[in-house]
Amino acid sequence: MKKIIIPVLILLVLFSCVSKEKKDKTINISGAFALYPMVVKWSEEYAKENPEVRFNISAGGAGKGMTDALSGTVDLGMFSREISQEEIDQGVWWVGLCKDAVLPTISADNPFLDSVKKRGLSREEFKSIFIDGTITNWSQLFGNDFDMEIVVFTRADACGAAGTWALYLDGKQEDLLGNGINGDPGLAEAVEKEPAGIGFNNTAYVYDIKTGKKYPGIEVIPIDLNANGKIDPNEYFYDDFNEVLQAISDGLYPSPPARELYFVSKGKPEKESIIDFLKWTLTDGQKFVQEAGYVPITQDKIDEYLKKLEQ
């Protein structure tokens, strides 16, 4: 009888180890809508080379990504704004991955769209709309013939897009005025359906990366960078997604609202499968960044983050 029991026990132990190993090959990720399309692309490509690795990925905003990462609910959080000292004090660890931007948006059905494109809005005018509340009607920008109350939309969920847009306007997300909408897709839809509306979205929710054109119904408000009351030729690069990405890469589009995107965790990840995946995103995975509609980070940055992974 003992001769039977002992081999069975050995098999059970081995089975338990194998099961644990398989479980450890699953990488759970949540967070920023901005980074979600990029991470989905990476997971698909990585799984082709590493079929034993499984991914669970969900978008719910950068705030959720940070909370889930710090609580250990997920292995990695997707994060899309500057990391605060408070978060550093809580033990957050991070690596940068790529860049994108937050764009001010307007409905394609806005009756003043042509004028908006020609004139644009300056940073101070955006601040007066989104934070100060001193500009509430399109007529204040374009004259009495443009009488229509501005309907302001913002994000209801804690997110990097709102934090980054607010930072550009010298504020925080909680300073932003407007009707709160949950998620990037929801905000884009709200702006699209309201002719008097104004909002902001991450680049991947304004442009179709396959065609390079804006999604039907939504337009970008050009930023009057030199505040001279008109959009100069070098300030307009919004018709095609590749032009926007090039403007971000060249620094023509300001940062913020352009920003770096991150993976975050509670301390440096210990699972070998996660470390291997992170190294891949910063090496072989970088070839998919532009294809997915993002801007690569510099090689110096990549080297910095790879060194961080080796420490």
What attributes characterize this protein structure?
ten-stranded mixed β-sheet; alpha/beta; D-Maltodextrin-Binding Protein, domain 2; disordered N terminus; 10 strands; 12 helices; 2 domains; 311 residues
Write a compact overview of the structure shown.
The protein is α/β, with parallel strands linked by helices. It has helices at residues 2-24, 36-49, 62-71, 85-89, 113-119, 123-132, 139-142, 160-168, 184-193, 241-250, 272-282, 299-310; strands at 26-31, 54-59, 76-79, 92-107, 151-155, 179-181, 197-202, 218-220, 258-266, 295-296. The chain folds into two domains: 2-99 and 260-310, 3-Layer(aba) Sandwich (D-Maltodextrin-Binding Protein, domain 2); 102-250, Periplasmic binding protein-like II (D-Maltodextrin-Binding Protein, domain 2, 3-Layer(aba) Sandwich).
Any chance you could write out the topology, listing elements then pairs?
Elements: H1 2-24, E1 26-31, H2 36-49, E2 54-59, H3 62-71, E3 76-79, H4 85-89, E4 92-107, H5 113-119, H6 123-132, H7 139-142, E5 151-155, H8 160-168, E6 179-181, H9 184-193, E7 197-202, E8 218-220, H10 241-250, E9 258-266, H11 272-282, E10 295-296, H12 299-310
Parallel strand pairs: 1-2, 1-3, 5-6, 5-7
Antiparallel strand pairs: 3-9, 4-7, 4-8, 4-9, 4-10
Helix pairs in contact: 11-12
Main beta-sheet strand count, sense and barrel state: 10 strands, mixed
Question: Uncertain runs with pLDDT below 50, 5 residues or more?
Answer: 1-22
Classify the secondary structure makeup into a structural class. Answer: alpha/beta
Helical proportion, percent range: 40-55%
